Amino acid sequence: MSNNFRLESGEGINQTEKISFKFNGKTLFGYKGDSLASALLANGIHLIGRSFKYHRPRGILSSGSEEPNALVQIIKDKDKAKTDPNVRATQIEIYEGLEAQSQNCWPNVKFDIGEINSIFSSILPAGFYYKTFMWPSKLWRKYEYFIRKSAGLGKSPTEKDPDKYDHKYYHCDVLIVGGGPAGITAALMAAKSGNKILLVDEKPEFGENLLSSSKENIKINDLSPAEWIKVKRKELLNFKNIKTLNRTTVSAYHNYNYLIMMQNLTDHLSENEKKGKIRQRLWKVRAKKVILATGSIERPLVFDGNDRPGIMLSSAVKKYLNFYGVKCGNKIVIFTNNDSAYETAIELHNKNSKVQAIVDIREESSGDLPKKCNELGLKIYWKHTIVSSSGHTKVKNVSVMKLSKDNSVVIGKKINIKCDSVAMSGGWTPAVHLFTQSGGKLDFNNQNFCFYPKKTTQKQISIGSCNGTFKLADIINESNQKTSEFINQNVENKNKISEPKEGDLENIWLLPSNKALGKTKSFIDFQNDVTAKDIKLALREGYKSIEHVKRYTTTGMATDQGKIANMHALGIVAETTNTKMGDLGTTTFRPPYTPLTFGAIVGRNVNQFFDITRRTPIHSWHKKNNAKFEDVGQWKRAWYYPIDNESMFDAVQRESKAARTKAGILDASTLGKIDIQGSDTSEFLNRVYTNAWNKLAIGKCRYGLMLNDDGMVYDDGVTTRLNENHYIMTTTTGGAATVMSKLEDFLQTEWPELKVYLTSVTDHFATVSVCGPHSKKILEKVTENIDYSDQNFPHMSFKEGSINKIKCRVMRISFTGELSYEINIQANYGQSVWEKCMNAGKEYGITPYGTEAMHLLRAEKGFIIAGQETDGTVTPIDLQMDWIVSKKKYDFIGKRSLYRSDTAREDRKHYVGLLTKDPNEILEEGAQIVAEVKNRPPMDMIGHITSSYYSPNLNKSIALAVVKNGKKLKGKKLFVPMANKTIEVTVSDPVFLDKEGTRLNA
Amino acid sequence: MFIIKCPYCGERDHSEFSYGGEAHINRPKKPTELTDDQWAEYLFMRKNIKGIHYERWNHSHGCRRWFNMARDTSNDKIHSVYKIGEKPPV
User: Fold this and answer.
1) Residue A733, min C-alpha distance to chain B (Å)
2) Is residue B8 part of a domain?
3) Which of A573, A710, A772, B22 lies 20 to 30 A from A405 at CA?
4) ipTM of the assembly?
């Protein structure tokens, strides 16, 4: 197919640079500067895709980011698995190698099976999901499969995105959004003040709408709009304090003038030029002042069959004609309620497109352009409306009828007009999206039938047509005046502007038809397939709030966020309910203004940069020795160390056995460590832990349980008194940061009188924990200047020594229940100390064990893990740890809550041990526990399993659990129902091994 | 995304701070002398108002100091920022 519809020239394209691209597999060509939409139109292609619900053929409606219909799938790297769905054909610029496909159709866009939905549309009304598929609920899964398959937009990629994305922060004095006549005028004015200015626009060039304006009808300082804008663009280059960004869309406008914008850097480049470049950049801009010059969006008219390919917005038809040099048809009908479409008619007529007729719903117009059309001999049907259209994949005929005096019905004879395109204009809607996102309030203008900015809450102004100012002369004057006030800069700037006088607009939200409303398909939301009758139905069914109507009908909820649809939906609701538009309000505009890619949102934070990875100083040893790692918060912890092809189970069993019979070594460097100094530290510890701390002697360690003020266990760990006023606290690995914050909070806000100073030293020390019957002998070989005799160095005490003259702290504390020592040394010596221990322990069979074996070993001893046995609903009493809760202390965090009526209840869930009837049966962590088994659920669940292992030291399965009233159930049989069987268990004490603690002194 | 004026460091971006809930709820000095209801009042009850809200903030990615702020919840305007222990502005 050749460029049959191409004119000799267009402002925005370069006809010397031919570009070939593919659409639905067919190779076509266009020119540099073409959008995909303009290139397709030049090839006579109007049918782009199928609609969301009814699979109706859809074409190109607009020429910009408001496009609801012409969404395509872009294939990247010639790989269908790497693709961008829902790309607006009106926004993407063609490039050599571009490959685009229609969406939501099968087997192809011309013949689409899903179109059968259109025939059944009467049974697919608004809210049909809620009505039809609610019953029987069992079948929903079946329905869902077909609904998901038949309704929808593009396909998601199945391969990883090959592109790179970027983030950038930017600060400026004035941000100007929109580079049309208003934005450019404001930028030049603001630039003279010397401020740091950022001017952004979503299009490839500034001032684009003026570039497609009539050359004859409008003059600015004797220049055509296109010439004028070019002069202004040059002027911008003279200012070093202006930064300009094209192809950049402001997605979100937050408070304190914080705006998020997405810049497209390579989407318009050829496949070759794209290589190695960043595709999109997300800008996070903080501006002292913001000028919104976002323009306005033309509205369609709502009549039966207004969605056929070939029926387009009048401004878009003009832009394709003048900017891209493309005729949208050879026989065009203009349909309007205002004067702006007459300019399109004149331009079409001048460029040899036949204007079949102009249909105007108004009685008359006093404007200059309609007069000119009359002089040109164009047929104008005043006070007429289109009542229907025909043509399957492209419009070929419209029927026109006269409107009654009050516009409520159509009268007279139907006039059929043949055509291959319709250019419609229903007036203009200011793009107030960013304004309302920023917290601004709107008001309704009854003359132009639009909402416009009324009151802003930020340092911000709106200028130009986004402010409801539509005449070019007014726009430029307003921009000059308001900008100079806004930035306190008085610059004389007079322009001589001549433009045609315009007649008044007349508005009918839903045009009458000769058919009953139920028989019409008058689309409001093209993308979500919402028609006028859907809105009326929602109102009949009792929905009154516009927010409810929106959600029930899904109008305005598509990816275009109702840029085209919202005003008509509001208008019809207001009319039907006899409410004033201003009183009805609008739905909420939410970011993003246009969809942005996940890539841009994520930026560089992918793969290894997704989150911080923390590794211990001994990490490389673990890696070299085949450790499997477990993520604990941001930490990578050695999980287990399989030998050869050992399974995880076997490795953990071997490691756990060795730790009790020979010696085990664990990297405990990830435990949180807080250095606490100050004369009030013991009092401070008294207040934050449940037990008493004032009698802890220097050189001794103590285990502590920390609660929240609600009485629930929050964290635990051992604190050592190093000196008179110097302690070191350990926390759980995951709790380190939050414990630190909580302690700081209390010190700063509740107890500022305490002399206590906290420093997080987690990363400063490596911790090597050696346990087992041979551990003492190993430590003796490794450290210097420490006497390991039980008298000198008993359990729960600390000694300072050295290793190769490097100072170290050794604590004799145990999480495994075995004789156990922890060496703390400056982090960078961690690995050499570990290796030293390994060498020293070789003769005793020292075995490195990971977190899994550590969990198993402590479970044998019934030690809790905060966060595994506890979940924020467990008190120390529930844990049967009454022994650690001081009765003597007047107060500690959480104390008062322990005897609130709910926490003092006797029948709370208590921490217990469970033994399975079959000692080889291992329970599943998280499984529910019942006292009475029924044939099928629901059953009364009285608790759940928190930890479960096979104990190699006891040769049986053991589990920990929280069970309702568990303290009183010891010896009782309970049941754990699983998918395919029920497991019988007996409640036991949670301490399975060495209740007396003799092994600690082995 | 606010700009918050830390009383110790000056104006900084919102992302440097963390929110700490309603301000001026002092932990009772003698919790054991309170009834369940009085204790619950301290522990659970928080205002959820439209208008000026006095709240705690922490400059967690800066000086780590806690301070108080009076913010209008209807438009997020920050009316004042003041140190812990200082009286709230009227």
Assistant:
1) 20
2) yes
3) A573
4) 0.98
